[in-house]
Amino acid sequence: MQSLTDRSKIASDKKMSFLEKIYLPAIAKGMAITLKHFFKKKATISYPEQKREFSEVYRGQHVLKRDDIGRERCTACGLCAVACPAEAITMIAAERKPGEENLYREEKYAAVYEINMLRCIFCGDCEEACPKEAIFLTDRIVASQYEREPFIYGKDILLEPLDIEKRIDISKRQTESVLKFKENKRFAHNK
Ligand code: SF4
Ligand code: SF4
Predict the structure, then answer these.
(1) Which ligand gives the minimal distance to the CA of 89?
(2) What is the pLDDT of residues 4-62, one digit of tens each?
(3) Is 15 part of a structural domain of the chain?
(4) Going by CA atoms, what residue is nearest to atom 7 of ligand 2?
(5) Domain coverage including residue 101
(6) What is the spatial distance between Cα 163 and Cα 171, in angstroms, rounded to a whole number?
(7) Domain containing 114 — which CATH number?
(8) CA gap 73, 133 in Å, rounded
(9) pTM, to two decimals
(10) How far is the CA of 87 from the centre of ligand 2 (A)?
(11) Inside any domain, residue 48
């Protein structure tokens, strides 16, 4: 049968020479390869002191956005959860009560909203599916943990701060088509 690559080697039962038996040529060959790589430019960097530049379209930790006056944009419609191929999103919807209009933009909101970061593959489908521009992926890295439990991110982590100065910048995620969509008066409620 013809091999698919040229990497396979025919095994031989040829008797080993004295030098081969003491492995000296093999050790010298190995050392030569090590030395060759020793003077080459390193492929690794000293993280966290040094950081690599991220791609413009890097998709990292999610943010749940607020509108201009600080109300939560998410209406707990569940479209992001349905679109998620990893089934990483879960939520519990609640009804907005009179007097809470300044907290939630719609009559329904997510009382609980969780993303399992161990399941998430950062595909961005949740962002694409959201009709309220409530969820975006950002260039923030999901922090490493020793336990599994802290990887379940709730609203305490996902929701952006109320303070306008501390809002999470998602301008990189606002593609031309998204901005065009925003200009449409029919969808003014999505602003
Ligand atoms: S980025 Fe993809 S995998 Fe992660 S929560 Fe969103 S839809 Fe699910
Ligand atoms: S984040 Fe968007 S898609 Fe997901 S439940 Fe909220 S409004 Fe719906």
Answers:
(1) 1
(2) 777 777 787 888 888 888 899 999 999 999 999 988 988 889 988 998 888 878 899 99
(3) no
(4) 74
(5) 62-190
(6) 18
(7) 3.30.70.3270
(8) 7
(9) 0.75
(10) 14
(11) no
**Two tokens at 83?**
């679109």
Q: Which residue lies with its CA nearest to atom 5 of ligand 2?
A: 76
Is 1 a domain residue?
no
Q: Indicate which ligand has the atom closest to the C-alpha of 137.
A: 1
CA 123 from chain centre, in angstroms, equals 7
Burial tier of 18 (Cβ tally within 10 Å: 0-12, 13-18, 19+): exposed
Give a yes or no: residue 28 inside a domain: no
Protein residue with its CA nearest to atom 3 in ligand 2: 130
Tell me: the pLDDT tens digits for 58-84?
A: 899 999 999 999 999 999 999 999 999
Q: How many domains does the chain have?
A: 1
d(CA 28, CA 7): 23
- H/E segment holding residue 55: none
Of 34, 88, 41, 99, the residue nearest 61 (C-alpha): 88
Q: Report which residue type is found at 26.
A: A
